[in-house]
Amino acid sequence: MDDLVEFLVARVMDDNHAYAYVAGTLGGEALLDSHLPMLDLIEQLANDYTAMAPSDSRSAGLAYTLRVLGQSYAEHPAYQQEWRP
Question: InterPro entries given for it (predicted)?
Answer without folding.
Answer: DUF6221 (IPR046193)
